[in-house]
Amino acid sequence: MAAINLNDRRRDVARDICRIYEVTMSVEALHAFANILMPLKVLRGHRLVNEGEVCTSMFYVDKGMVLQSYKKNRTTVTEHISHEGDMVVCIESYFLREPSRIVATTIEPSVVYGIPRDALEMIASHSFELCQLIFKFYQRALIISQRKADVLRFETAKERYVRTMRENPEIIRRAPLHNVASFLQMTPETLSRVRAQVTEEGIK
């Protein structure tokens, strides 16, 4: 897909984002939003956000998969895995404008659309609809964070795996197993044991 085609798709991508976040926009607001989208077609292993950089944009995943991770005791820990229709943001760095401890890396060839924070806030200052969209972005990010914390606190390894299998099957299907294990906060050995148990019990 050539870069010019990605630019031509910005209006469609803007509509997709509004549909996902359930925000109705006027033609003018949609046009303003589409114009700030920054298309990127990247290979596997491309870093959207590096450790030590300030995260100045959110990224909408139009195609592909993005891994957010950090280092702990020389081990890479998977924080989140995003795919088509998801938004990627290193939220603490984004809000505080401080260097990120989280790295955002594509784990498949991907097409993403950057949404620069400053440009978004500038056009939102003239549009209530765009303010609504920003609110929905932040609301969903906070809900995802809270749900993940609750799952890790209250659910067993098997329950975490089954929940992800049902609610986000693309992660189970497409992400490397060691990343899935890290995301679910279990060892690869535990993940293999849980997968075998779930298959044996015919859980779907």
Quick take:
By secondary structure, this protein is of the alpha+beta class.
What does this structure look like?
By secondary structure, the chain is an alpha+beta fold. The protein has a domain at about 5-125: Sandwich (Jelly Rolls), CATH 2.60.120. Helix content is about 50%, strand content about 20%. The chain contains 10 helices and 8 strands. The protein has helices at about 5-10, 10-20, 25-35, 90-95, 115-125, 130-155, 155-165, 170-175, 175-185, 190-200, and strands at about 40, 45-50, 55-65, 65-70, 75-85, 85-90, 105, 110-115. Strands 1-8-3-6 form a 4-stranded antiparallel β-sheet. A 4-stranded antiparallel β-sheet has the order 2-7-4-5. Strand 4 (about 65-70) and strand 5 form a beta hairpin. Helix 2 packs across helix 3 (about 25-35) and helix 7 packs across helix 10. The longest helix is centred in the C-terminal third of the chain and has 27 residues, at about 130-155. The relative contact order is 0.15.
